[in-house]
Amino acid sequence: MTRRIKGAEIARAITTRVAARVAETAPGGRVPGLATILVGDDPASDVYVAAKRRAIREAGMRDVHHHLPATATQDQVAAVIDALAADEDVHGILLQLPLPAGLHPAPLIDRIPVTKDVDGLTTASAGRLARGERGLRPCTPSGVVELLDAEGIELRGACVAVVGWSELVGRPLAQLLLHRGATVTVAHQYTADLAAVTRPADVVVVATGVRGLIGPEHIKPGATVIDVGIHRTPEGLRGDARTDELDGIAGRITPVPGGVGPMTIAMLLANTLQAAEWDAEHEAVPA
Ligand SMILES: Nc1nc2c(c(=O)[nH]1)N[C@@H](CN(C=O)c1ccc(C(=O)N[C@@H](CCC(=O)O)C(=O)O)cc1)CN2
Q1: 231 phi and psi, to 5 degrees?
Q2: What is the CATH code for 139-261?
Q3: Short name of one Pfam family for this protein (predicted)?
Q4: Is the CB of residue 230 below 6 angstroms from any atom belonging to ligand 1?
Q5: To the nearest 10°, the Cα dihedral for 9, 125, 224, 200?
Q6: pTM of this prediction?
Q7: Which of 97, 189, 229, 251 could pair covalently with 239 via S-S, beta carbons 3.0-4.6 A apart?
Q8: What is the rounded distance in angstroms from the CA atom of residue 45 to the CA atom of residue 51?
Q9: What angle, 0 to 180 degrees and rounded to 10, lies between the N-to-C axes of helices 139-150 and 260-280?
Q10: Summary count for the chain: helices (H), strands (E)
Q11: CATH 3.40.50.10490: does it fit domain 27-113?
Q12: What DSSP designation does 8 have?
């Protein structure tokens, strides 16, 4: 039997811990504040930002939100980020992706101070991750590592295939895993013989945005499959893995929904708490 990894439950436990810590420190100290910026009306982004804002409030944090029209200019988005960067009550700033066509995400993200980069996506945070220095890590990759830890999967010496090259997931995840002593191979949707890369792996993480890319031909019996993909289909939400076909082959698999998705939000709260605690200690992000 293939075990379903209960991401939603693990995320709830993290969220509860964060909320308890906020309640403990808020009376004397400052309430952590997280600002979300949504540009345009992408329906999936609407759902994700609404879920983030709900989680922020449930954790006892301050919810600051800016919704700009799809016609907003690069300068208008930059002005919102700059104002939040200067606001002492805001400890984290998140620019929801993707942005509408015509806006360039990288220069906007890089206006977020590294101390408030709770999404871990600035060049400065990426540099810290590459060097193995302390800092705020991207939420989905750190959520994946938390899931593997919660399942008791030993990463040191494990053979892990990361399928996907995105800046949001694949590339930072490969680095996080390397820092944990895993042997990491990065592949993607155009890898010529994908099965040759994934079949030897103890853990396969798939984050390509290609529905059903990974099937039984890609997975060693007993291996763990972490499915980061989310596709809205007439049959409901589906991932990048053909989960039904992997039943009885994979040792463990994350479901979609209820797997990696909720971890992204839990790690965002954990990062915001961390940013607020560093701020309260008057520490820059410690090296
Ligand atoms: N600035 C960012 N933009 C985006 C990120 C990110 O980490 N930072 N990640 C993704 C989307 N995302 C968060 O924004 C996200 C995706 C999925 C979920 C989630 O809880 N999914 C549920 C299903 C919910 C549904 O779709 O109905 C699940 O898998 O169980 C949360 C957050 C892109 N943009």
Answers
A1: -125, 130
A2: 3.40.50.720
A3: THF_DHG_CYH
A4: yes
A5: 180
A6: 0.97
A7: 229
A8: 10
A9: 110
A10: 10, 11
A11: no
A12: H
| Contact present, 90 and 113 (Cβ < 8 Å) | no
Rounded to a whole number, what is the distance in angstroms from the first to the last CA of the chain? 44
Taking the C-alpha atoms of residue 135 and residue 268, their distance in angstroms, rounded to an integer, is 13
Fold agreement between 27-113 and 139-261? yes
Q: How many CB atoms are closer than 10 A to CB 179? A: 15
CB 172 within 8 A of CB 136: no
Q: Is 51's C-beta closer than 6 angstroms to any atom of ligand 1?
A: yes
Contact (Cβ atoms closer than 8 angstroms) between residue 122 and residue 112? yes
Q: What is the pLDDT along the chain (287 residues), one digit of tens a residue?
A: 899 999 999 999 999 999 999 999 865 678 999 999 999 999 999 999 999 999 999 999 999 999 999 999 999 999 999 999 999 999 999 999 999 999 999 999 999 999 999 999 999 999 999 999 999 999 999 999 999 999 999 999 999 999 999 999 999 999 999 999 999 999 999 999 999 999 999 999 999 999 999 999 999 999 999 999 999 999 999 999 999 999 999 999 999 999 999 999 999 999 999 999 999 887 666 65
Tell me the CA–centroid distance for residue 263 and ligand 1, in Å. Answer: 9
For residue 137, count other CB atoms closer than 10 A to its CB: 27
Report the nearest atom of ligand 1 relative to the CA of 95: 1
What phi and psi, each to the nearest 5 degrees, are found at residue 63? -100, 115
Q: How far apart are CA 282 and CA 186, in angstroms?
A: 38
Alpha carbon 196 to its chain centroid, in Å, reads 27
Q: Report the catalytic residues.
A: 52, 96, 119
Domain range summary for the chain, segments of one domain joined by +: 27-113, 139-261
Nearest CA to 162 among 194, 205, 208?
205
Rounded Cα–Cα distance for residues 42 and 56 (Å): 21
